[in-house]
Amino acid sequence: MIRVGTLPPRRFLKYDWHMLRTITLLLALTATAFGQNSAKDETQVWELEKAYWEYVKANDLEKYRALWHENFVGWPFVSPTPVRKDHITDWITANTSKGITLQSYSLEQLAIQVTGDIAINYYRINATWATGEGAKLRTDKFRITHTWIRTGATWQIIGGMSSPVNAEGK
After folding, report:
1. N or C terminus: fewer CB in 10 A for the chain?
2. Is 2 inside a domain boundary?
3. What is the CA radius of gyration of the chain?
């Protein structure tokens, strides 16, 4: 039960209404800005995934290694156990030491989620490998998951896993 003498003066009720509208507007703008930043982050991470494969294709191990965080641990399909950053280029050098290089590839982005300074990216790749003379050797099809962490103005891979696609190519 409200007693008549306990209500705030009318001018305060008007002030509270304006404050409530202002706060609501600011929250809406913040949510919109956050959504735009999330989309920007998703684009930045996806561009780094594409750069990853360009570095593999160019056999640029220095730029490739720079994509990986010092505390990385992941499980590539070519390894029976998870590996750390010091072994992240082993699969590339195992191919190039035999004269095999990445000739072409296509990526199919399936999902990406950015939450704060963490991004998780899921995609499939079709990678065509060839000899130094350009003779096609094989096409690999894999599922890849990379977990990225924001480090300053960029992102680095801190975790990942890959596996061959299933019988339907999915």
Report:
1. N
2. no
3. 25
**pLDDT per position as a tens digit, 50-98:** 999 999 999 999 999 999 999 999 999 999 999 999 999 999 999 999 9
Q: Using DSSP, state whether 72 is helix, strand or coil.
A: strand
Is 169 among the domain residues?
A: no
CA distances from 164 to 6, 137, 144, 161 (A): 71, 17, 9, 11
The reply to whether 170 falls in a domain is no
Sheet with 83-84, edge to edge strand ranges? 83-84, 68-75, 154-164, 136-151, 118-131, 100-115
What's the number of domains the chain is made of?
1
Specify if 1 maps to a domain.
no
Cβ contacts of 70 within 8 Å, gap of 6 or more: 85
